[in-house]
Amino acid sequence: MNTLLFKIVWRLVVYPALAFAALSFVFLWIYIHPRRNVGHDKPETFGLKPRPLTLTTADGVKLDAWFVPREGSRKAVVICHGYPMDKSDVLGLTSYLNKDFNLLYIDFRAMGRSGGFFSTGGARETRDVDAAVSWLKDDGMDSVGIYGFSMGAATALLSTNPALKARVADSPFANLREALDGVFSPFGVLRRPLVGAMRLWGLLLTGSDIDEVSPEKSAASITTPVLLIHGDADETVNYSGSLRIKAANPAIELWIIKGAGHGETRYKALSDYEKRVRGFFLKNL
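Predicted structure:
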């Protein structure tokens, strides 16, 4: 009888645990190996004339990129898209910057047309930023800034590249673990164990710790100008994260746009968005 009871209890414990581990692995795999999205928007539609490039990161990943020159300018802005999109997704948010600056649009690793197998929420993507900055400096740029949206905004804040003189971060998350907690909120009390198990799988597969991907912490040590933008109606990445980033570094300029959801900031603020972002880079680059 005791043997039968042991077998029953063993199965009741082990089988659900194995199923939970498998489920967390599947979710982690979907997250770090996203489906490739290549947008239909073209730079030419926005009046841009890009030169296709292939950049190589320090860890050997090939990145697909567009360089959009601005004749007479030695200043440039690296443009970073969100997850899991590609560089075309931020053309509407940034194309006007070419009036004054050279622009370098990149596809992050494992997204768009770039190489790479794993996306890491900003942890390794800082190496993609480094590759872009290095190419611009080699091309003779005197001053480099960065614009990022969503995960691209988080990556812009995570980067410690000393060549970055100004950063615009539109709709970043404050902490990757908390962002994933939000994604899995429908799982109720199981969401924290699920994200915790995903963290362990992530450490095993990518060597990156989601608990360490924290723009909030990184922002505290940034000494160059930062313009932080967020919509107060953002249901994908809550704007409270940007409030915390601002609190971590009071020198950061924070602009909350009323009624704007995720990706809607420019379209709610209209000409004020272009004026403020363009003015910020003109002042600080």
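Summary: The beta strands are 51-56, 62-68, 75-80, 102-106, 143-149, 164-170, 226-231, 253-257.
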